Amino acid sequence: MLQKKICMVGAFATGKTSLVARFVHSIFSGKYQTTVGVKIDKKTVNCHGKELNLILWDLYGEDEFQKVRMSYLRGSSAYLLVVDGTRHNTLEKALSLQIRVEETVGKVPFILVVNKSDLTDEWEIEKVELDKLKQQGWSIILTSAKTGEGVEEVFETIAQKILEG
C-alpha cells in the first residue's frame, strides 16, 4: 500500500486540527485546542481502485511569535494550505507560507482550503481574491470542519493529485 505524507499548514486557529479530526474520526469539537509542534494522524483512502495511506501532519499554526519549522515538511507528497474565511490575515499568511513551503519541498500538489464555510456571512475574504488565485492555477476548496462540508472532497482531491503527480 502506498503511504503519502500530507502537511496541514496555515495561520493559527484556521481549523487545521478540526479538519483532520472531522476527516479521520468524523468528529467536531467547538473547543479550541492549540497544536504544539506537530500532531500525526492517518487514514486510508481508496482512489481509483488504489489504496492510499495518508499520513496527515497537522503542524502548529504560524503567528507573529512563531514560524512554522520548514523541516517538518521534508518528505511531503502534498500539503493543504488552510485559511479561515472569517479572517483575511490568514489568507495573507497562507500566501507567504506557500512560497516558503515551495522553496522547501519543491512543486508538490497543494490545495488552498478556505475553512468555516458555515460562516460565509462573516467572511472577510472576497470571492474575487479566490478567483484570482484560481486563474493562477490554484485548487481551492471551501470547507466547514463543523458541518463536514467539503472535508472529504479536500482529502480525496489531494489523494488524486498525488497519484497523478
Automatic annotation (TrEMBL):
Keyword Translocase among record annotations: no
Q: Which PANTHER family match?
A: RAS-RELATED PROTEIN RAB
- SMART domains xref list: RAB, RAS, RHO
Q: What is the lineage of its organism?
A: Bacteria, Bacillati, Cyanobacteriota, Cyanophyceae, Nostocales
UniProt GO MF annotations:
GTP binding; GTPase activity
Keyword annotations from UniProtKB, A to Z: GTP-binding, Nucleotide-binding
Note the NCBIfam families from the entry: small_GTP (TIGR00231)
By what name is this protein known? GTP-binding protein
Please indicate which superkingdom the organism of origin belongs to.
Bacteria
